[in-house]
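Question (not urgent): is this output format expected?
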Amino acid sequence: MAKFKFQLESVEKVRTQKEQKMLEALSASQRDYLEKINAKRSLLERKQSAFEKKNELASRDASINEIRLSEDFITGLKSQIIKADQAIIRSRRFLDQAMRNYIVARKDRMMIDRLKEKALEEFKVEQSRLEQRKLDDLITMRARLNHGPIDSEEEIA
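Got this back:
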């Protein structure tokens, strides 16, 4: 039996590589997005800690300079949190784009897979036909050898 050879094998290879590349880009975007979220979470924890420290300073009658320094630190953290929110939004956009690119690449590869399956099915059908034709020829040759040539008058009778 002949071996199946897919005509679009090079296209399949390119599309598989593209899908893998898009998957890696998606993974990198997800990592970046999670890093941005964790950075914001860290800033929020630092802000909460600074609020607690400021309240502690106020309750123990600390100097006005210490309280003002604490407030300035909290204000700086708020500014960093706003920037972190913007970075998260940008990162989310990149993540969404990477997801769309991956989905397109996956659809393209799946289309080639369907074409390959169809070609394989057609190949199997053709191989089956060829095998049946060979069997028919073999049976015909065996019948001729066993019974001699078939005359058209004998067929009618």
